[in-house]
Design brief:
With about 120 residues, this protein is an all-beta fold. Helix content is about 0%, strand content about 50%.
């Protein structure tokens, strides 16, 4: 793999910004705002490693098995993640957290969330 060094920008690509994304089911949004945006800064050819910035309007999703290993840093907004044991943790701007592949959780965005992410499938 080619060695690449780059800066992750909270607004996405400096020219085109962020593009619409559809990772969140329409039924999971909790307000009339269904905005979801993404910019991937880096992806391996097989997309087993991804890094970028993602934004999503308020939503709530019950996840039986988190599909990837993901490390995130909240840029703005907040998200509350409740684990299978019922322990809830709220993450806000500046917080970095990790969810392991296979984790059962509830993902609840209470105010529009923007985050940096690094995903390993």
């Amino acid at each position: 793999m080619e060695n690449k060094v780059f800066r992750l920008l909270p607004g996405g690509d400096p020219v085109s910004g962020m593009q619409p994304s559809d990772l969140t089911n329409a039924a999971d949004f909790t307000t009339d705002d269904h905005t979801e945006l993404n910019h991937t800064f880096f992806a391996t050819p097989d997309e087993s490693v991804l890094t970028g910035v993602w934004e999503c309007a308020p939503s709530r999703e019950e996840i039986d098995s988190y599909p990837v290993h993901e490390m995130m840093t909240v840029i703005s907004g907040s998200v509350t993640v409740t684990n299978a044991q019922g322990h809830a943790e709220t993450f806000t701007a500046g917080d970095t957290f990790y969810i392991a592949k296979g984790a059962r959780c509830i993902w609840h965005i209470e105010e529009t969330l923007r985050k940096f992410y690094m995903i390993v499938a």
